[in-house]
Amino acid sequence: MTTRFILIQPSHAGNVGAAARAMKVMGFDDLVLVKPRWDDVLERDETIERASGAVDVLQKARAVETLEEALEGITHLCATVMTARDFGPPTRTPREHLEPLAPRGESVAFLFGSERYGMRNEDVYRCHVALQIPTDPDYGSLNLAAAIQVVAYEWRQCLGGFGAARPPATPAADAQAVAGLLAHWEQALVEIGFLDPKAPKKLMPRLNQLFNRAQPTPEEIHILRGVAKAMGEAAKKAKP
């Protein structure tokens, strides 16, 4: 299964570098340029600078003369368009089209037109779908790298994604620790005059439920008990 990003007649070196960066952060590295403006675009300083570390994608990329060469080995073609084409393939959002496509294991190419005039009708017509990124109706202009980033993200999510990086979870304190915290707080609340031990009403059960919902960690239990201790000491100092 191949995922290829094809840039048709790219005219700005910086956009090629930014495209490589957008692909790399989503785990893709198959980039093909069709008749780029610059023969040496993959080695130009601006390209490398805008790639921001995705030099391996540029080194693997290739430039070809025709779209037919770029499509070798590809079985499913996705054009990217701002407006639907009459007599062209169906126009769908990336997510709508790509979710059912992912399990089929096809070799997919995403085609992006020139920055100056987009994709030609004849290139769109040969594709299986025209992908249209939902944007504000009053301003739908995405630059090339931004469009690639959105499509690459949507396709990666359909392929299973990477998952968000999260810090290791800290286990919640056990019930005994929470009970000790409640007892300490009850004592402190009495000492500062907030809780009347003769008429406690539902304060402590409600605090118990609050702490159960919060699921404090052992470190947080330690902090809260320090607060209770400080309240008790302040109450003692305040007494005549």
From TrEMBL:
GO molecular function, one term: RNA binding
NCBIfam families, per database record: rRNA_methyl_1
Catalytic reaction(s) noted: cytidine(32) in tRNA + S-adenosyl-L-methionine = 2'-O-methylcytidine(32) in tRNA + S-adenosyl-L-homocysteine + H(+); uridine(32) in tRNA + S-adenosyl-L-methionine = 2'-O-methyluridine(32) in tRNA + S-adenosyl-L-homocysteine + H(+)
Family: Belongs to the class IV-like SAM-binding methyltransferase superfamily. RNA methyltransferase TrmH family.
Keyword S-adenosyl-L-methionine in annotation: yes
Known function: Catalyzes the formation of 2'O-methylated cytidine (Cm32) or 2'O-methylated uridine (Um32) at position 32 in tRNA.
EC number(s) per entry: 2.1.1.200
Any Gene Ontology biological process: tRNA nucleoside ribose methylation
Keywords: Cytoplasm, Methyltransferase, S-adenosyl-L-methionine, Transferase, tRNA processing
Residue intervals of the tRNA/rRNA methyltransferase SpoU type domain: 4-153
GO CC terms of this entry: cytosol
Pfam family, one: SpoU_methylase
Organism, as annotated: Ramlibacter agri
Top-level taxonomic group: Bacteria
Quaternary organization: Homodimer.
Protein location: Cytoplasm
CDD domains listed in its UniProt record: SpoU-like_TrmJ
UniProt-listed Gene3D superfamilies: 1.10.8.590, 3.40.1280.10
InterPro entries, sorted: Alpha/beta_knot_MTases, RNA_MeTrfase_TrmJ/LasT, SpoU_MeTrfase, tRNA_m1G_MTases_N
Name of the protein: tRNA (cytidine/uridine-2'-O-)-methyltransferase TrmJ
